[in-house]
Amino acid sequence: MKTSLRLLPLLLCMATTALAQTPASNVTVSGRVQDAQTKTPLPFLTVQLLTEKDSVFVTGRLTDGAGAFTFTGLKKGTYLLDARIIGYKPLRQRVLIGELSAFLDLGVLPMEAVASALGQVVVTANASEIASTMDKKTFRVADNVAQAGGSVVQAMSVLPGVTVGEDGKIQLRGSDKVAVLIDGKQTALTGAGSQRGLENLPASAIQSIEIINNPGAKYDANASAGIINLILKKEEQTGLTGKVGLMAGAGALWEKRENLPTIRPQFQYTPKFNPSVSVNYRNGATNSFLQGDWLYAPTLQKNEFSTRTYNDGLVIQQQIKRNRRTDYATLNAGVDHAFNDRNSMSVSGLFNREKILDNGDNPYFEGNLTNRYRLWQFLEDEVKYTAFGSAVFTHRFPEAGHSLNFTSNYSFHREDEQYFFTNTLPNFTGQDAFKLLSDEHIVDLNADYIKPLKQGRVEAGFKGRYRSIPVNMQFFPGERSPLDPGAGGMATYRETIPALYANYVFESQHVELEGGLRVETVLVDYEVNPDHNTYKSDGYRYAEPFPNVRAAYKFNDDHKLSLFFNRRVDRPNEVDIRIFPKYDEPELIKVGNPALQPQFTTSVDLGYKTNWSRGSFYAAAFHRSIDATITRIATQAPGSVLLYNVFQNAGRSWNTGSEFVWQQTFSKRFSLNTNATIYRNTFGAFTVVNQYPVPVTYSANRQRLVSGNVKLNATIRLPHNWDTRVSSVYLAPDLLPQGRIESRYSLDVGARKAVQNGRGEIAVNATDLLNTMQLRRTINGATFRLVSTDYLETQVVRVGYSWKY
Question: For 767-794, how does the pLDDT look when each residue is reduced to its tens digit (9 = 90+)?
């Protein structure tokens, strides 16, 4: 740890990238004026806002017939509210506009009837821009030209605190317990509490990405590491507007490592196409929008070389090569309509189709590369469909920001998968097949209430969810199959979650306080075929409180200190408890665990931010304590070389670290964004029993490793109006429950130029320009050691054009 701290200044100088953060903006203030004695409204009187420092006029209004007024577009600061009408004492009140609430309600302001006016009162103003509340960071996808034309995972890989782990899983500050939302909603497209579908979701469909490390009570309590919210593109301009674009390129420009003997060739020169179109039409009170994206991206999805060494001296060399053909189409459309000033409705729908064809080769050699004892080849033919519909009705009360929202969502996701395996032995060839059909249904009903206050707001709401996933796995074993003859069957996952939450926000000139409580009751049933050879029906249930607290002290407009505390949960997803084994290769098998229980996490986060004229610096220290840690544990089947990766609750673990972000504009032509995350993952000693296919006990001692990542993003304006971006990412070695992942590094470069008077844009980029991003890992089991390196495709070159109309 001391060594890492000494290296921190060097790492910050090396650093590698993040996108520019979007600043917070305008605030609306409302209130009502009435007679102090009779309580009758005072219409058509003058209400003004003045600066406190020098009484300069900022804005003014007349109250309406009900005595109400509203000021919009206000900056952070302290103001003087001045109301006057003949026959009443002038009303003067100090108004503090802070950083936590976009709406403030001053409530009822009484005026006393008198014959004469009083003198004027003056207070101080602070007109600086609104600072970040440090609970959320927002990044525009369009700013990151270096990853344009790729997937959402590639776009997120350069964000502060974000890393891409095994199997393309997103991690925040060293943990993969992340929920991904779309427009603030959980959908089956990205997984209800998981990360499914991100690897192929095109970044061209996304307007911006929000990272919420410390979610409040209004968010679902699932996902202890935080929330990533994907904001889909949607225009707001009047009339007909839109944009069309195309990015095209190629990957796998050369072999990182040649195949082991006797297998089919790797993919090379894989084509990439990403056309997109968006249309928006606003006419009066109605706004209609449509966004379509298609990502066609054949890729060398896996190319892993491994050596397994067993305690008895047996050594097995192998390769897992997977050539993947993928096309991914997404259509998002909707209508927003305002019935009047108080009531509006939004209806939207999203449809997605993902087609995957995997052709894989897995050769196995005992001792040396002349002794091949097995060649395992497979074809995976998979189609996924997702449909998501949402209706939101909003009622606005007369006070600005005072609202009641009713939301109903329905999400459907189908997995239709077929697997065909060919098992070639020295004197025999056998064939096996699987067919899996899974339909996921999610129904959500939400109600959310917001009431602005004079210095903050209150929020409260209800969420109800019902989710069901029936799964049918059919297995057709061939002769002398190495696979489990009882691998098929039926299972049904059912989840019911009612939840209530309340949140209170208070803000003064120097102090910010926010406290919330979410109470969830969760009931999960998992029904399994009664004749399953290992597992029985199981599930879990709990009723738990999930509090969150935020306290901040503002030294001045440019310096703020914030403290966060929350308790969250990670509920096992359906695939985590799914009883059907997944054969990525015949000798390393993944399977779920119906007895898996939720893990609960308590987090503390201390953040500090300072701003200056051309830059800012943000620092945070965080600590998470996790009970019943969910992870995969690999064990060897007795009397066999087969390894089984099974989900387990592996005792307690801890995640402690720091995050730093430095942004600086040096000139009109050069700006820099550097961020670094350093953390220590600790796994306590534990003992578990893998039940599948037969009980095997595994024990581990306490493990600890300091890891982190450093990122740098440099934006350079070249002659002839070319904007370039250089992104570099370094990922330090990290800890696994049974081993570690070694360090990784990549360099991305992109450039763009506006043409046709700003309506058109040309873009070109290259990801992993030096072809250095390789995944190396070591797994230590009770009876074996596995060392592997995955030379998957990471280097892609693209060029594109887009046009606005």
Answer: 999 989 888 999 888 888 999 999 999 9
Q: List CB contacts of 412: < 8 A, sequence separation 6 or more.
A: 188, 385, 386, 387, 388, 439, 440, 441, 442
Q: Dihedral of the CA atoms 138, 141, 145, 150 (nearest 10)?
A: 130
Could you write out the DSSP letters of every residue in 722-788? EEEEEEEEEE--EEETTEEE--EEEEEEEEEEEETTTTEEEEEEEESTT----EEEEEE-SSEEEEE
CATH class, domain 27-111, is: mainly beta
560's enclosing H/E stretch is strand 559-570
Between CA 351 and CA 612 the distance in angstroms is 45
Distance CA 620, CA 136 (A): 13
The 3-class SS string of 63-95 reads CCCCCEEEEEEECCEEEEEEEECCCECCEEEEE
Rounded to whole angstroms, what are the CA distances from 762 to 45, 278, 515, 700, 752?
55, 18, 47, 54, 5
Per-residue pLDDT at 261: 93
- CATH code of domain 239-804: 2.40.170.20
Which CATH superfamily does the domain covering 133-232 fall into?
TonB-dependent receptor, plug domain (2.170.130.10)
The residues, ordered by sequence, that sit 6+ positions from 77 with a Cβ below 8 Å of its Cβ are 51, 97, 125, 126, 127, 128
Give the position of tokens 């520019």: 20
Percentage, residues of the chain above pLDDT 90: 44
DSSP for residue 20: P
Average pLDDT, the chain: 85
Which of 351-360, 577-586, 671-680, 701-710 is predicted least confidently? 577-586
Alpha carbon distance 163, 731 (integer Å) = 8
Domain regions of the chain by residue span:
27-111, 133-232, 239-804
Place of tokens 């900056």: 75
- Which residue matches tokens 């090379």? 268
Q: Which residue's entry shows tokens 């409204």?
A: 41
pLDDT (tens digit, 9 = 90+) per residue, 268-279? 999 999 999 989
Q: How far apart are CA 124 and CA 73, in angstroms?
A: 19
Residue 739's identity, in one-letter code, is: G
User: Is the backbone of residue 493 left (phi > 0), alpha (psi -120 to 50) or beta?
Assistant: beta
| pLDDT (tens digit per residue) in 743-756 | 999 999 999 888 88
- Whether the CA torsion 140, 141, 145, 146 is positive or negative: it is positive
Nearest Cα neighbor of 804 from 230, 201, 207, 235 is 235
